[in-house]
Design a protein that fits this description.
Layout: H1 7-21, H2 27-37, H3 45-56, H4 61-74, H5 109-126, H6 135-145, E1 154-163, E2 167-168, H7 170-179, E3 189-196, E4 199-204, H8 210-226, E5 231-236, E6 240-242, H9 244-247, H10 252-262, H11 272-288, E7 293-297, H12 306-319, E8 322-327, H13 340-345, E9 351-354, H14 358-370
Helix pairs in contact: 1-4, 2-3, 11-12
């Protein structure tokens, strides 16, 4: 009889994957899922999917992350809400959910060590330099990028909502006093609402950025998927190209393929000052960059006029709420921004961060949310 894998151990590893994706998935929720699976057919992908969705998701914001993590971990399409759960083939990738018929709940030591090695390998991969990965490691990294959740930054809205704490809502307080015959029985309070802040991603697609271009565009795809109405993506090199529409494809591979077909200067030279001026003249000055969080992905190898780049960066800084510069080389030990392009740009940058690994991109998500 073939050796079987332990369902409980599989769920613990799946919970760790969910936490990487941004879900809490604490011990109480994992225990609830394991208890639910005890009453269901764990060989049926649909039942496993819905058991996890009902027990591991804390709110609507978790659903998309859960779907992405489920697909990436178990290697199959998750059933969609609003329709009958289709019968699927048994899950065979990553962690098959086969119960031990003897009820011993044990797992061979070799398989347990293999799974822990896989988890440890993913953690190591998160910190590896993307430009130095093998083709197999790049493929695994693409799966991990599918779990990345880019939270859009927010800004205060002019509208307010009722609250038990906060500033006094004078109009509502006065109306309440008039209804009570002039008697003040309490103060109505309000707090400002928030709304998504516009995000603009400027991606350098020159030859020197080639090893990182795929990862950066996958990050851009995740940002567009999360904030379609408030996120714009442009590529910069020798020309300016808007690829927001191409990035709205649900499938990341299709989005990158469509973007690649739309970019005429892929792996060409770099004219950051000239292209940044074109962006500000046509898009930024007219509203796209106003009070937005602008993220520039570039190594700063400027082949044009560095003085012009400095002037346009100063212009951009006056328009934008925050300017974040992401340089893949910053993650290397001993790196110093000595190139002419970086010297011209840095005085006008709000935050200068690395962009060489998945862990660095996860830190960038936090920087964008807190900008």
């Amino acid at each position: 009889m073939a050796e079987q894998r332990d369902v409980v151990e599989t769920m613990l590893v799946f919970a760790r994957t969910l936490r990487v994706a941004g879900l809490e998935a604490g011990p109480d929720r994992v225990q609830a899922m394991v208890a639910a699976l005890g009453e269901l057919d764990v060989l049926e992908a649909g039942e496993v999917y819905w058991a996890g969705r009902f027990t591991l998701c804390a709110g609507p914001d978790d659903l998309e992350r859960y779907d992405a993590a489920f697909n990436a971990f178990f290697g199959g399409e998750s059933p969609r809400a609003g329709g009958p759960v289709p019968r699927q083939e048994r899950i065979q990738e990553s962690a098959p959910l086969d119960l031990d018929p003897s009820g011993s709940g044990t797992e061979p030591a070799e398989e347990s060590s293999d799974r822990h090695a896989m988890t440890s390998g993913e953690e190591v991969l998160r910190h590896r330099d993307i430009g130095q990965l093998s083709p197999a490691e790049r493929e695994q990294l693409r799966r991990l990028f599918g779990l990345l959740s880019v939270r859009p930054p927010t800004r205060p809205s002019r509208r307010h909502s009722r609250s038990h704490r906060g500033a006094v809502d004078v109009p509502r307080t006065v109306r309440r006093v008039l209804r009570n015959g002039g008697e003040i029985r309490g103060l109505a309070r309000q707090r400002p609402r928030t709304k998504p802040r516009r995000v603009v991603l400027l991606v350098d697609v020159s030859g020197s950025m080639g090893p990182y271009a795929d990862a950066i565009l996958r990050f851009a795809h995740a940002a567009v998927r999360r904030g379609q109405a408030t996120t714009e993506v442009f590529t910069v090199g020798t020309r300016l190209t808007r690829v927001t529409r191409e990035m709205r494809h649900r499938d990341p591979d299709r989005a990158l393929s469509a973007s690649g077909a739309a970019i005429p200067d892929w792996s060409g030279g770099t004219r950051l000052g000239q292209v940044l001026k074109a962006f500000l003249d046509r898009w930024g000055q007219r509203g796209t960059a106003r009070r937005a969080t602008v993220v520039i992905f570039s190594d700063g190898w400027e082949r044009g006029d560095c003085v012009q780049l400095g002037e346009q960066m100063q212009r951009l800084a006056r328009l934008a709420h925050a300017v974040i510069w992401v340089n893949p080389h910053k993650g290397r030990v001993g790196y110093e921004p000595l190139t002419g392009g970086m010297q011209a740009a840095l005085p006008h940058v709000s935050t200068f961060v690395a962009g060489h690994s998945l862990a660095a991109f996860q830190e960038l998500v936090e920087e964008m949310a807190n900008a």
